[in-house]
Recover the amino acids of this structure.
């Protein structure tokens, strides 16, 4: 069994999993990171906070969907190239802000392109500022969306940079 499945089963066994939802090939497992806005993704499993839902209206899920897409391309090497460095960066072991690490801006860019094509401007009935369509501008700049985030139950969304990536020496050391 894969490591991500072992993690999911173990967390479920100890009662951490509140809910599991799915969207476009990815599972969102809620209750893992508590009340925070933090999540992590290994393969097609994304582990997030309370009320975490597989939904384009939750920009945290959109960002994590980008990590899912990275894992498609990188396969098993994803854990060493993105997973471990991202975990260390999120823990503060970097002089570069976590959101601007190359693997984070790449995940945000991949997630937004996919969601915009499928649930935003790529839809035939798309209207700018609609509550029924993904808003790539709000994703990138933050602010209040027209749609309600199912996790936070509000319209306020934090920003996820899709450009301005910065690298460090450690990005070139495969762990």
């Amino acid at each position: 069994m894969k490591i991500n499945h072992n993690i999911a089963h173990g967390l479920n066994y100890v009662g951490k999993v509140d809910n599991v939802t799915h969207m476009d090939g990815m599972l969102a497992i809620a209750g893992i990171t508590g009340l925070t806005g933090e999540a992590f993704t290994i393969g097609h499993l994304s582990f997030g906070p309370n009320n975490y839902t597989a939904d384009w209206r939750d920009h945290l899920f959109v960002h994590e969907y980008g990590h899912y897409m990275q894992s498609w391309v990188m396969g098993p090497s994803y854990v060493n190239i993105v997973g471990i460095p991202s975990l260390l960066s999120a823990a503060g072991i970097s002089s570069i802000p976590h959101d601007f690490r190359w693997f984070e801006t790449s995940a945000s860019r991949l997630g937004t392109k996919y969601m915009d094509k499928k649930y935003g401007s790529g839809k035939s009935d798309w209207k700018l500022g609609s509550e029924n369509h993904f808003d790539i501008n709000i994703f990138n700049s933050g602010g209040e969306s027209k749609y309600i985030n199912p996790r936070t139950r509000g319209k306020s969304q934090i920003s996820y940079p899709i450009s301005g990536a910065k690298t460090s020496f450690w990005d070139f050391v495969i762990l």
Remarks:
- The two ends are 22 Å apart (CA to CA).
- Helices lie at 3-13, 59-74, 78-90, 102-119, 136-141.
